[in-house]
Amino acid sequence: MKILLSLLISFAMLLSLPAKALTPSQAEDLAGLTAVFIYLKNDCGYQDLQNSRIEKAILLFAQSNRWDMSNYNIKEMAKLNKENYLDIKEIKLSENYKCTALARDSLSLLAYVK
């Protein structure tokens, strides 16, 4: 849980700007990706993933989709991140299958950041 809070706080610091967030769909996608990385790190044995690389990957994802991050809302996104993380935890699949599928579909994004 400490890693989760650390990641949420450091990601929020990266994008700490006031006002309303992205479109609801974009915010949900961003929170979903953040939750996947948090889940991989906390629940799947990927503790060695550096928060800074995860933050860069999430930012790269948003930039590659040409999303305007200037009005990123920290509190709303932290809430969405947590909800998405809990949703992933509640998926009724074996941990091994869930971790393998999430890693396969998301870790490749880290190859684009240094």
From TrEMBL:
InterPro entries: Chap_lipoprot_PulS/OutS-like, PulS/OutS-like_sf. It holds the Pfam family T2SS_PulS_OutS. Residues 1-21 form the signal peptide. Keywords: Signal. Gene3D superfamilies: Chaperone lipoprotein PulS/OutS. The keyword Signal applies. The keyword Signal applies. This is YacC family pilotin-like protein. The lineage of its organism: Bacteria, Pseudomonadati, Pseudomonadota, Gammaproteobacteria, Enterobacterales.
